[in-house]
Amino acid sequence: MGNPLLISRDNFGSSFFKSSPFWAQRNFAPAAVSLPRNSVPVDHHTLHFHDRCTTTPFKFEFHEDPCYLSKIGQNMEKVRTMLSQPSHKSNAIVTVDALKKLGIDHFFGEEISAILDLSYNNMYKTLKESDVKLTDIALQFKLLREAGYDVSSDVFQRFMNENGEFKQYLSKDVEGLISLHDASFLNMGEEMLYTAKNFSTMHLQSSVKHLGQRCGALVRHTLEHPHHVSLKQYKARHYLTQVLLYLTSDDGSLSIKELAETEFHLNQLLYQDEFKKIKRWWSDLGLARELTFARDQILKWYLWSMTALPGPQFSKHRLELTKSVSFIYIIDDIFDIMGNPEELTLFTQTINSWEDSSALPGYMRACFIALKDVTSGIAQFVEEEYGLNPINNLKRSWAILCNAFMVEARWFADKQVPNAEEYLRNGIISSGVHLVMVHLLFLLGHRVTNETLHIIEGNSALVSCTAKILRLWDDLGSAMDENQEGFDGSYVEYYTKDNPSCSLEAAKLHTKKLISKSWEELNKEYFFNKSLSPYFKEASLNCARMVNVMYNYDEQQQLPLMNDYIQNLLFGGK
Length: 574
Known about the structure:
Elements: E1 6-7, H1 50-53, H2 66-84, H3 92-101, H4 109-127, H5 134-146, H6 174-184, H7 191-207, H8 213-224, H9 232-246, H10 251-285, H11 287-290, H12 298-308, H13 315-338, H14 341-353, H15 362-386, H16 391-413, H17 420-430, H18 433-443, H19 450-456, H20 461-475, H21 491-498, H22 504-528, H23 534-551, H24 560-571
Helix pairs in contact: 2-10, 4-5, 5-6, 6-7, 7-8, 9-10, 10-12, 10-13, 12-13, 12-23, 13-15, 13-16, 13-18, 14-16, 16-17, 16-18, 17-20, 17-21, 18-23, 20-22, 20-23, 21-22, 22-23
């Protein structure tokens, strides 16, 4: 078998890099670099959002050397020229995939849009060619569906026999299997993609023992971290490491490599600077000293924001969002660990009224006063950025969350056992996802419309499905959160009580199927909802992707994936 790690058909292996999301399409040039044509990408599906969902481009101050900045501009021009050359047309879709997997496609929005348009218009003609490859069709399907094109999974019929099974010769096509596996996770409930996932998974697993060390590692990474459901920044870093090993020395390949390295390094410097600021805010706030029972995990809280809204133009937004995330954890601990039923009832009433807190115990009063200040600060930030003040909607989101916490507290205090569906309905709200998405909605400049009301009310799949994924994954029972002594029950537990004949393993399998179904619903909303900004939709997916990092405990009750994520994206990986 040939080496599937080669990218350009000459240099870039089409199955070697993973793709980056819509949020990577951002209005940004490092420092004061001037982009000759389009610093904002042109996506004919989402163009009208760029004027209200981006702020002034962030200006890096870490690298002011004119030679350094000139080199960045030169690299962008070389890649742009390569994408526009007719001689590169046969490799164009492969290069687009590489740019997306490395998270630098936002520099080339106009060129990529033209390439995808051409690919979409020619796809069915390509399917009729006698020598068409599974890799090519799977790659085009993935890129087009990610970009919002209406492309059917029936394109894979070309590779199936009369029995509706993938042709046997494809079981030896490792490059094609990797591309097919990637594509299968863009499922919206399609039988074809279930078949594709089962076929590609089975044969990739069996191929590992016959591959060399590096190819085998690629296949294992593909199986363990499927592209669509994994964190884009983490995947980009992984593939950047491989690029350093395998790229050839032609100008286009080296320019892509250098741009990716620069993007990663500048973002890392920015994230480190933000983390210092949020640590200082948390220390100055003083709640860790007053609420000694509560979790003190500011790095973990910042990771949610860093993941949901990556990129330099959202620096201030991440800081504000992290403050809200921290209070979700703190208030959760008040309900789970410290408060008695009477205190919790009073606290919930105070949150709902957003007024006098004098009757609260001291620790609750301190939390509420700090929460009011933070929420007012976020509302003021939104007003300064977009000219609207969402304070009433933000207050209501906190009331909704605390009401859901209160339901669980009453169940526990009264020794009530809810049925699984009742527990899950409330658990979707108490996960905190609804509150985060409401804050994100306004931080990104959305105004209240019929569409955004669905978000505010928690009825959108972009909220409910992400929340369900988080709640169910957490409830699979792999471990309790660090230093938490409270008890919430779990969906798995209540499902087995509702179904006495169901074993624990069968209940877990049922829960995993619900997670898969939630991903399919989330995909459908993500790919075809054109009324919400791509940044908001990507933030929803990023939160769902982060769940596996935050709750994937090993046998030692540790989080190895989260530790690897932190070291690669925030502190190390140079």
